[in-house]
Amino acid sequence: MPDAVNLDAYLRRVGWSGPVGTDLPTLRGLAIAHVATIPFANLDPLMGLPVDLGLAALQRKLVDEGRGGYCFEQNLLFEAVLREIGFEVNGLIARVLWGHPEDVQTPQSHMLLRVELEGGSWLADVGFGGHVLTGALRLQPDIEQPTAHEPFRLLERDGEWRMQSLAHGQWRTLYRFDLRAVPMVDYVVANHYVSSHPASRFVSHLLLGRTAADRRLGLLDYEFTIRRDGREPERRLLRDVAELRDVMEGEFLLPARAVAALGDRLQGLPRT
């Protein structure tokens, strides 16, 4: 396993040609470039394949092979990139509340990053599917913060934080978390659950996401959704496997060989 990520290869992968430093413009810029070029994807869990969180495997899959991955893969890679640049960064773990009531108990199944900059702490997250944070948030509660897309904010009560985004005049919670640093073994256990447990939607549904400058793209099985700032979502049910493959390659930038490797698995996905 390499001691460090291949930074030059990563920067080429995300199309970054600007300066690189331990500053907010670099953090924000790389986060935006990352989510525009490296798609959120769960192809391996869908095929019943293990998800390797080792740095060598992450670089090979997400950088060298041009594939996508989900939160643990995305944020562990991004953490390694930030460390290689010289940032002080630690991983956190969250309970997802997106699509759930605020008081529901969900497992710790999502990773995000805390990054220290001169003057304070910031949060980054390049692995939350089609509604991922674009940029970085100052670790400060109760203030609306701009991103490259909709506004976000953080709430805090008794040491528990919630990340929210504003859409159509309504604040919605993505997840809740605390600020305790998380050892790698906890990510390994959470990754095993998300990638293989029968109750995990990652093993039974196709889930893709990518966020470009002017739109957010999401795919749940055969339902393709485009979200543009301030507009109602555009939803379309894809006709067949051929159209699904075209969207996976054309809109979510997945390599044809990765899509072809799914074989007949796409045929059996739900279509409602």
From TrEMBL:
Record field: transmembrane: none
Example of a GO MF term: acetyltransferase activity
UniProt entry tagged with the keyword Ligase: no
Lineage: superkingdom: Bacteria
A Pfam family assignment: Acetyltransf_2
InterPro entries assigned to the protein according to its UniProt record, in alphabetical order: Arylamine_N-AcTrfase, Papain-like_cys_pep_sf
SUPFAM superfamilies, sorted: Cysteine proteinases (SSF54001)
Annotated Gene3D superfamilies: Arylamine N-acetyltransferase, Cysteine proteinases
Record carries keyword Transferase: yes
Alphabetic keyword roster: Transferase
Annotated family: Belongs to the arylamine N-acetyltransferase family.
Name the UniProt record assigns to this protein: Arylamine N-acetyltransferase
Organism: Rhodanobacter lindaniclasticus
